[in-house]
Amino acid sequence: MSSNRKVLPTWDKVGKHALFPEAKHDEIARFNFLANLNNHLSGQVLPGVKEAYEQNALPAFRAEHGREPESRHEVREMMKKQPFYQLWSALRRSTMECRQQAGRSLVLRQIDRINAAAAELNNGAETLVLNPETQIPDYVTVVDTHCMPGSYHTSVVEGDVSAGANYDSGLFVTTVGQLGSMTDGGGRAICDWLKKDHADFKPKRILDIGCTIGHNVVPIGQAFPDAEIIAIDVSAPVLRYGHARAKSLGVNNITFMQVNAEDLSQFADESFDLITTSMVLHELSAQSMPKILSEISRLLVPGGLSLHLEQPQYSGRPVFEQFIRDWDTWNNNEPFWGAMHDVDLVGMIDSTGLPSDLQFSAAVTAKVDESIFPKTETGDKTEDYGRAAAWNVFGAWKPAEAAKQESVA
Ligand SMILES: C[S@@+](CC[C@H](N)C(=O)[O-])C[C@H]1O[C@@H](n2cnc3c(N)ncnc32)[C@H](O)[C@@H]1O
Fold it and tell me: Which atom of ligand 1 lies at the shortest distance from residue 152's CA?
């Protein structure tokens, strides 16, 4: 019975739309193989890494130093020499390289069709605003983020959307369906949390920063159909794709704009009710993150909400867990991952004028998508065998006008 429950959704269950790359039998098989290998590595091989730590590395460390390791960095130094860790790590990196190359070749062989489909949906639309003068920051270009060839920003031909198409088609392989068929579990988790904990909050103007292809802002657009939504990113190829994707899904209340979030001076003070980032802060440099958070603070109306979705911070977790969570920093072209998960977020947000008593942090989980994790004949509850990703949502409410005046008095 339990083996039934472990059946993973296959790649062909990914939600389709007008731009989505078409895949042949072998391309689908390749994605499925990689998704299953990822799943095997995290479910069956990773426990062996912990065993290698507990049985080999840790006793040796204690014998040499006469104490417990104090940081993930010490754990990493000792684990780098453990053959079982080397095996797990090399395979994990390889699955990412293979996913990106598989996605890239899938997209490039039909790039003319995908670019033309995007152009048809984008041409003349006021809801796509590109600015070729936008400075792409070094921290976006310095590496091919999580091994994506050309990262988010590289266009290979004019009007290119290939970076977006590759991102869209491959994410399912890494997340193995946990984000749902439309890979929008993060945005849905944000909307569910707002509905559950802040049902009266009805934002009229929303800004999403670092939207990429809009996976997670589209559900926000659907949850607040009367709101005006602006989704910004520095990278043109993903914006072209994201705008066309939203249109083809029938979501028309989002304007996609090419803007560097470090300078949002084109937007007036106190002009947004809700400002979101999903899985963005960990890709920002240490210098840019406080700048962007300060811009958010400036742009919020009094009583407005800033809300960020990320993996949980490291603080308070066992050093071995921190070391595993930090794998991406060293092996997955995510150079800012570890530094961001170390930052004192409360202190940093506080320093932008959003005080700690108005901040929040909550664990949220995406809903299991029953369209890709169908109920079994046993009649068990979906939660028993489906899978959904878990995150941390955190942020702050901007002091309302009355409270601000009180504190000035
Ligand atoms: C991990 S992706 C975000 C994923 C997306 N929010 C989602 O939910 O699927 C990070 C994005 O942030 C963008 N980005 C990085 N720095 C930026 C900046 N300073 N201003 C605007 N966008 C930025 C990148 O181009 C990239 O598309």
Answer: 25
The per-residue pLDDT for 409 is 43
SS (H, E, C) the chain: CHHHHCCCCCHHHCCCCCCCCCCCHHHHHHHHHHHHHHHHHHHHHHHHHHHHHHHHHHHHHHHHHCCCCCCHHHHHHHHCCCHHHHHHHHHHHHHHHHHHHHHHHHHHCCHHHHHHHHHHHHCCCCCEECCCCCCCCHHHHCCCHHHCCCCCCCCCCCCCCHHHHHHHHHHHHHHCCCCCCCCCHHHHHHHHHHHHHCCCCCCCEEEEECCCCCCCCHHHHHHCCCCEEEEEECCHHHHHHHHHHHHHCCCCCEEEEECCCCCCCCCCCCCEEEEEEECCHHHCCCCHHHHHHHHHHHHEEEEEEEEEEECCCCCCCCHHHHHHHCHHHHHCCCCCHHHHHHCCHHHHHHCCCCCHHHEEEEEEECCCCCCCCCCCCCCCCHHHHCCCCEEEEEEEECCCHHHHHHHHC
206 CA to centre of ligand 1 in angstroms: 16
Q: To test the ligand 1 pocket, which listed residue (129, 212, 282, 287) has its Cβ within 8 A of the most ligand atoms?
A: 212
Say yes or no: 209 and 150 in one domain.
no
Residue 173 located in a structural domain: no
> Does the residue 361 lie in any domain?
yes
Q: Which domain holds residue 82?
A: 2-126+135-167
156 and 258 assigned to the same domain: no
Q: Which residue out of 145, 213, 280 has the highest number of ligand 1 atoms within 8 Å of its CB and is therefore the one to mutate?
A: 280
- Residue ranges in the chain modelled with pLDDT below 70: 1-6, 375-387, 402-409
CATH label of the domain that carries residue 255: 3.40.50.150
Question: Which pTM does this prediction carry?
Answer: 0.94
**CA of 187, closest atom in ligand 1:** 8
Q: Are residues 119 and 190 in the same domain?
A: no
How many domains does the chain divide into? 2
Kindly report the protein residue whose alpha carbon is nearest to atom 3 of ligand 1.
280
Kindly state whether residues 120 and 264 are assigned to the same domain. no
- Give the Å distance between the CA of 302 and the centre of ligand 1: 26
Same-domain check for residues 319 and 193:
yes
